[in-house]
Amino acid sequence: MAGLQQTNSEMILLSWVRQSTRNYPQVSVTNFTTSWSDGLAFNALLHSHRPDLFDWNAVASQQSPVQRLDHAFNIARQHLGIEKLLDPEDVATACPDKKSILMYVTSLFQVLPQQVTMEAIREVEMLPRHSRVTREEHMEVHQQHFSQEVSFTFPLSSCCSKIFF
């Protein structure tokens, strides 16, 4: 049940983010890892609820990912009281930490308007799932180790991972 509750919470949170940022064509949030690394999603989320705080076009077009992330975290701290829990350099990577992103987005969810439509939730349910390695597939590959050295690269948990067996 805990896994199901977490999945539902993530789905609602992702639905809220997508609904909040749908008017920002440069932003496409499909997960809680790579979708956040360029800083646009955090800024769009803030701007969608508080457009009075900054000029979206200036932030979106003239700054690097680290600068955009720093901007979003500073705006959230100064105007919403959310501590700067993340370092921009840790998020502006090929694969930011999912739990850290979830924690920060949850903090935003708690202070910004939280209306989520059923349409937004259904939209998230229809997003393609990333490949997941089943326990059986993992065991098959692990057993091959005895006969040869094998190296695979494939996505795990919606993020880039490299596994060597």
Write the layout of secondary structure elements.
Layout: H1 2-21, H2 40-49, H3 56-62, H4 65-80, H5 88-91, H6 98-111, H7 118-125, H8 135-144, E1 151-153, E2 162-164
Antiparallel strand pairs: 1-2
Helix pairs in contact: 1-7, 2-4
Radius of gyration, whole Å: 18 Å
Query: CATH superfamily, please?
Result: Calponin-like domain
At CATH level 3, the topology is Actin-binding Protein, T-fimbrin, domain 1
Biggest sheet, spatial arrangement of strands: 1-2
Task: State the end-to-end distance.
Answer: 32 Å
Order of helix and strand elements from N to C terminus: HHHHHHHHEE
What gross morphology would you assign? Answer: globular
Sheet with most strands? 2 strands, antiparallel
The chain-level structural class is mainly alpha
Mean pLDDT reading:
79
Organism: Climacteris rufus (rufous treecreeper)
Protein name: DMD protein
Domain Calponin-homology (CH): 7-113
Pfam family, one: CH
